[in-house]
């Protein structure tokens, strides 16, 4: 890898940092009253004191619930080797009880070097789980169940949750159940019999504050001094970066970014994009990179789609808007065509096309998701008769027409009249 | 590569195969049978043949330079991780072909699966695993997949297994491979998964669980060696889910502008000057309707033939005078084809209009006259099926209460009276009725009503045919006399499967299945004309 130039190497280092959550969130493990230390205390106490525990990690997506948990588990596995076995389940994959138990059995077998039978029934697997819990409890080994997307496990009869939490009521077992969910009301979804067995310990993960964001950016982007990169390059890169971070313009960019979504995940995608924009000739980041990254993060898909529309498609949209203003309760392709014809009759436009051409433009609009069918019923009906609705606001349409390259003046006039 | 550029090549060859050059497709597919065991190596995951340079890549996609550079930057240097990426943009904007060609340029291993060909989760999962495990379906394995995999949980386990072995083997031979051809070496140890046409997944039965799974796959697997690329026609905000998903990084492909389109159409033209003067005429008006290359190229192909018709020598460079002549020759056809959607019905139009050329030139004002020739229906149908279709149309349009008076023994002679009665109604009421008809579309009807109408009109037709051509009456009489033969029901079911008539849900009161005719009035009139059936006499006008 020696032939790579330092800028490229720096790029690879930064990219791998961003895609490694354990690096990013190790930043949060420094402060004493962070979720990290709380979680570590809960799990380690149940390992050392041989007790059962359960905890929910709640918070919006991209705030590092799983990442912090993984850091904690990794450290505990190092501190107490052969004392902990981790079973990981995901609500997206294992929300079906049968499948979840099978997966638990599979992972337990893998961990303890036992033969796993694919043919084992639900009953066999749950018996196996109970006996494993007892055995591990006797050997003072802790089993940690990680249930990602916890809210999806609460669908249906919650038999898995019940059997797990119920098994933890006995003194022989030694286990921790960690639920991870982005629904803040996840514990309210539990049935009564499950809820009474749950410890009601919840850890809330919030997006970082503005100052934390700033420091996190620093933590990620400053190049390490002890890497294979040439020292003078690293020094120059870091000096330049600190300069940028102190810049008011940069702070403004971070503020606008956090205005819409201040989660760490969002910030990481932004930084990733900024690194992609890095100029390879100079090899340094600049404010311009961050600016263009911000632009690529702030997408307005409806306006983009409007810009792509052809003139005929714009006509149809304006017709629909007019019908909406007239307060017709339903509109479909036929009523749009009637409106289209009346516009043509009054203004003698040059863009009057045959019905089947309009129908195809109508289908394009459906494909672009600028309009949509009112309901999912009536698949037997042909598209012309199914009621449709606009999914863009008057304001968006107005703005879209304005920014459109070749929008005819008559459409502007019609829209202004409506407004 | 010119798949989207040159209008001559049909667009929908399999997308992946159309991207590898034809000479290279042969070793991949044909020779597989002979040396399938030796040749399945990691090499299969990259494009074979000489790698194309960045300049070639940019040149083959006019108007896409910034996008290509942006994507190259996103994919980054060798062995650098990638955040999940989401490419979106309208149809035929070059999303798939650019990303595939880019992998040809980079020669990095990738796995491509389109959600259109892999139309359910199981097939999607198995296709990905097959490619990862370098498994090819053939006779010796009974065209089975490498792994049977239906559940997402199995898929993730198998995928993790397969990916880690693949990544290990990629690490084993870094950079320079012991392969004979220097061209087919695999670059880097990242494996990229490309999911094309993601928007169709929204229509799948289990879309509510599959979509979050795909979007969260990167976080579930936690493998930095995996790069995920999603391609979709619609933007991220149309992918809704209950508790959301980890949003991938969006990259937008805008539609081509008019200038881009010109550059694209000018590619690979035999006589660029001639084609350019042709584009001057057609591009602007067509761009007002659509800017999709696939649609434009099908429309331009016959038009250009038409344009060249007066020319003796196709290689000639047209001068101003010539251009003017060609323009006046083409002009009537432009507005004609502007109002046409499919090229299929346009091509038969060309032949008769070529015969009518002289008449057309005389009275260009009567351009639409050429449409008259399209009057006959362009497919074959048995006579009884036609009658069935007409009766379905009538049953859908006419109110059921009027059946008795329309189809009495006099054969709808009091229709005129009925009409007058209708026109006596106040205008306002009429308008609301009309509005209702526009909204509701054709009505539904039970099977009994359809058969009754069918019997009525065939008996009338028999009566009519008796007058005109008695020799045909036998056939019709047979149809009506032994009326409810299983034949008719069979015809009905085949009309249903051809989507001329749709089967709706059953009526809650009667419990019988209800039908609905979907054909347009024009179509019904055409069919009636081909039978010499007086359809308008039976049609109730509000």
TrEMBL record, chain A:
Keywords for this protein: ATP-binding, DNA replication, DNA-binding, Nucleotide-binding, Nucleus
Biological process per Gene Ontology, one example term: DNA replication initiation
Pfam families (alphabetical): AAA_22, ORC4_C
Residue ranges of every copy of the ORC1/DEAH AAA+ ATPase domain listed in the record: 54-180
Cell location: Nucleus
Main location: nucleus
GO molecular function: ATP binding; ATP hydrolysis activity; DNA replication origin binding
GO cellular component, as recorded: nuclear origin of replication recognition complex
Annotated TM spans: none
Domain (Origin recognition complex subunit 4 C-terminal): residue spans on this chain: 216-400
Role: Component of the origin recognition complex (ORC) that binds origins of replication. DNA-binding is ATP-dependent. The specific DNA sequences that define origins of replication have not been identified yet. ORC is required to assemble the pre-replication complex necessary to initiate DNA replication.
Family (UniProt): Belongs to the ORC4 family.
UniProt protein name: Origin of replication complex subunit 4
Species this protein is from: Sesamum indicum
Gene designation per UniProt: LOC105156336
From TrEMBL, chain B:
PANTHER family documented for this protein: ORIGIN RECOGNITION COMPLEX SUBUNIT 5 (PTHR12705)
Gene3D superfamilies: P-loop containing nucleotide triphosphate hydrolases (3.40.50.300)
Basic and acidic residues bias: start-end ranges: 423-437
Domain named Orc1-like AAA ATPase: residues: 61-203
UniProt keywords, alphabetically: ATP-binding, DNA replication, Nucleotide-binding, Nucleus
Subcellular locations according to the entry: Nucleus
GO molecular function: DNA replication origin binding
Domain of life, per lineage: Eukaryota
Domain Origin recognition complex subunit 5 C-terminal: 381-539
Pfam families: AAA_16 (PF13191), ORC5_C (PF14630), ORC5_lid (PF21639)
Region Disordered, residue ranges: 1-27, 405-439
UniProt domain ORC5 lid: residue ranges: 275-328
UniProt-listed GO biological process terms: DNA replication initiation
InterPro entries attached to this UniProt entry: AAA_16, ORC5, ORC5_C, ORC5_lid, P-loop_NTPase
The keyword ATP-binding is annotated on this UniProt entry: yes
Organism: Sesamum indicum
The family this protein is said to belong to: Belongs to the ORC5 family.
One GO CC term on file: nuclear origin of replication recognition complex
Protein name: Origin of replication complex subunit 5
């Amino acid at each position: 890898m020696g032939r790579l130039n330092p800028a490229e190497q720096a790029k690879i280092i930064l990219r791998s940092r961003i895609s490694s959550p354990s690096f990013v969130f190790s930043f949060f493990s420094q402060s004493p009253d962070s979720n990290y230390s709380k979680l570590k205390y809960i799990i380690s106490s149940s390992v050392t004191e041989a007790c059962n525990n359960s905890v929910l990690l709640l918070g919006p997506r991209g705030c590092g619930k799983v990442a912090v948990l993984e850091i904690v588990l990794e450290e505990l596995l190092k501190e107490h080797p052969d004392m902990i076995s981790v079973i990981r389940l995901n609500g997206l994959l294992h929300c079906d009880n049968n499948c979840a138990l099978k997966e638990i059995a599979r992972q337990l077998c893998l961990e303890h070097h036992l033969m796993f039978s694919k043919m084992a029934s639900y009953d066999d697997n749950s018996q196996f789980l109970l006996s494993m819990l007892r055995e591990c409890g006797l050997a003072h080994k802790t089993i940690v169940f990680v249930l990602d997307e916890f809210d999806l496990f609460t669908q249906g009869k919650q038999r898995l949750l019940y059997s797990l939490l119920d098994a933890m009521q006995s003194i022989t077992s030694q286990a921790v159940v960690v639920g991870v969910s982005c629904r803040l009301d996840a514990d309210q979804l539990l049935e009564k019999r499950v809820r009474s067995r749950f410890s009601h310990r919840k850890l809330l993960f919030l997006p970082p504050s503005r100052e934390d964001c700033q420091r996190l950016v620093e933590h990620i982007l400053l190049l390490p001094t002890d890497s294979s990169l040439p020292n003078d390059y690293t020094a120059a890169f870091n000096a330049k970066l600190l300069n940028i971070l102190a810049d008011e313009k940069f702070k403004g960019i971070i503020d606008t970014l956090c205005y819409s979504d201040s989660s760490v995940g969002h910030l990481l995608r932004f930084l990733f994009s900024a690194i992609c924009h890095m100029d390879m000739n100079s090899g340094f980041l600049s404010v311009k990179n961050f600016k263009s990254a911000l632009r690529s993060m702030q997408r307005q898909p409806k306006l983009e789609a409007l810009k792509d529309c052809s003139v005929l498609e714009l006509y149809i949209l304006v017709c629909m808007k007019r019908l909406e203003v007239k307060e017709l309760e339903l509109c479909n392709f036929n009523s749009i065509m009637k409106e289209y014809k009346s516009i043509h009759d009054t203004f003698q436009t040059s863009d009057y096309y045959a019905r089947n051409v309009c129908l195809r433009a109508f289908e394009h609009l459906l494909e672009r998701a600028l309009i949509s069918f009112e309901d999912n019923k009536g698949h037997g009906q042909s598209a012309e008769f199914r009621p449709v609705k606009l999914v863009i606001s008057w304001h968006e349409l107005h703005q879209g027409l304005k920014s459109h390259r070749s929008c005819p003046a008559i459409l502007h006039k019609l829209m202004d009249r409506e407004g | 590569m010119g798949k989207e550029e040159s209008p001559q090549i049909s667009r929908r060859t399999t997308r992946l195969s159309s991207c590898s050059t034809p000479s290279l497709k042969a070793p991949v597919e044909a020779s597989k049978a002979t040396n399938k065991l030796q040749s399945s190596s990691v090499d299969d995951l990259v494009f074979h043949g000489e790698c194309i340079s960045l300049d070639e890549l940019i040149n083959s996609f006019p108007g896409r330079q910034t996008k290509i550079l942006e994507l190259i930057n996103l994919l980054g240097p060798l062995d650098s991780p990638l955040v999940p990426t989401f490419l979106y943009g309208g149809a035929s904007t070059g999303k798939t072909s650019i990303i595939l060609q880019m992998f040809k340029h980079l020669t990095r291993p990738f796995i491509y699966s389109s959600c259109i060909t892999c139309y359910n989760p199981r097939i999607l999962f198995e296709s990905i695993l097959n490619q990862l495990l370098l498994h090819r379906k053939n006779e010796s394995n009974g065209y089975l997949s490498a792994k049977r995999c239906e559940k997402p949980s199995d898929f993730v386990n198998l995928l993790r297994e397969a990916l880690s072995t693949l990544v290990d083997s990629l690490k084993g031979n870094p950079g320079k491979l012991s392969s004979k051809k220097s061209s087919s070496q695999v670059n880097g140890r990242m494996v990229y998964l490309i999911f094309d046409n993601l928007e169709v997944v929204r229509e799948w039965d289990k879309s509510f669980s599959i979509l979050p799974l795909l979007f969260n796959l990167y976080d579930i697997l936690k493998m930095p060696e995996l790069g995920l690329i999603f391609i979709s026609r619609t933007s991220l905000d149309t992918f809704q889910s209950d508790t959301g998903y980890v949003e991938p990084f969006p990259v937008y492909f805008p539609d081509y502008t008019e200038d881009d389109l010109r550059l694209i159409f000018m590619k690979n033209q035999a006589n660029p000057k001639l084609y350019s003067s042709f584009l001057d005429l057609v591009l602007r008006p067509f761009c007002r309707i659509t800017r999709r290359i696939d649609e434009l190229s099908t429309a331009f192909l016959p038009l250009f033939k038409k344009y060249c018709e007066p020319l003796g020598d196709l290689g000639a460079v047209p001068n101003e005078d010539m251009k003017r002549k060609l323009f006046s020759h083409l002009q009537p056809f432009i507005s004609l084809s502007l109002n046409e959607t499919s090229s299929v019905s346009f091509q038969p139009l060309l032949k008769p209009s070529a015969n009518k050329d002289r008449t057309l030139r005389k009275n260009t004002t009567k351009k639409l006259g050429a449409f008259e020739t399209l009057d006959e229906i362009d497919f074959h149908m048995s006579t009884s099926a036609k009658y069935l279709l007409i009766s379905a149309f009538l049953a859908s349009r006419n109110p059921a209460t009027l059946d008795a008076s329309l189809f009495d023994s006099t054969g709808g002679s009091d229709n005129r009276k009925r009409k007058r009665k209708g026109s006596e109604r106040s205008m306002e009421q009429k308008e609301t009725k009309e509005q209702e008809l526009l909204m509701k579309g054709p009505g539904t009807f039970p099977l009994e009503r359809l058969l009754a109408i069918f019997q009525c009109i065939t008996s009338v037709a028999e009566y009519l045919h008796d007058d005109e051509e008695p020799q045909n009456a036998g056939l019709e009489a047979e149809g009506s006399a032994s009326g409810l033969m299983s034949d008719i029901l069979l015809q009905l079911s085949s009309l249903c499967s051809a989507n001329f008539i749709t089967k709706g849900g059953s009526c809650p009161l009667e419990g019988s299945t209800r039908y609905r005719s979907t054909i347009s009035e024009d179509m019904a009139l055409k069919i009636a004309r081909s039978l010499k059936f007086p359809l308008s006499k039976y049609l109730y006008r509000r």
